[in-house]
Amino acid sequence: MATLNALVLSAVLLVASEDDARVDLRQAEAFTIVANVLGAATACDRITHGRVSAMARQIGAVATARAVSVEDVSSIDRLLMVSAAAGRQAVDGGQLDCQTVETAFNKLEQIVLQTPV
């Protein structure tokens, strides 16, 4: 499960990078990982709904800021929704445990809250 934490850290750093280039595959992968963590967090009682919602708003703002067109925003929104659902299913199905998700979410929260949009 340490791999998830490393992926989250890499993903958040990529999403938060100052590169203003068009949203590319690497960023899409990063948003997918981050959204998976957000979705998984919704299945864990120790991570409050308020924290998940605040983080989702922050990630959405970052994603929208990286978008070039309305189509990009729609694509990112769909990607985030599908990935979040997959993260929740991973916890519900036993592929992820809430302790790992909580650790990943805490790292995500620390980095994203320190990153200006």
Describe the protein's architecture and organization:
The chain is mostly helical. It has one domain. It is built from five helices and no strands. Helix 2 runs antiparallel to helix 3 and helix 2 packs across helix 5. The longest helix has 23 residues. The radius of gyration is 13 Å and the shape is globular. The mean pLDDT is 78.
Walk me through the topology.
Blueprint: H1 2-15, H2 25-41, H3 49-66, H4 70-92, H5 98-113
Give the % helix. Answer: over 70%
Low-confidence spans: none
Task: Please tell me what the overall shape is.
Answer: globular
Please count the beta strands (DSSP E, at least 2 residues each).
0
Q: What share of residues are in beta strands?
A: under 5%
How many domains, in number, for the residues? 1
Characteristic key phrases:
mainly alpha, globular
Put the structure in a nutshell.
With 117 residues, this protein is mostly helical. The protein is built from five helices and no strands.
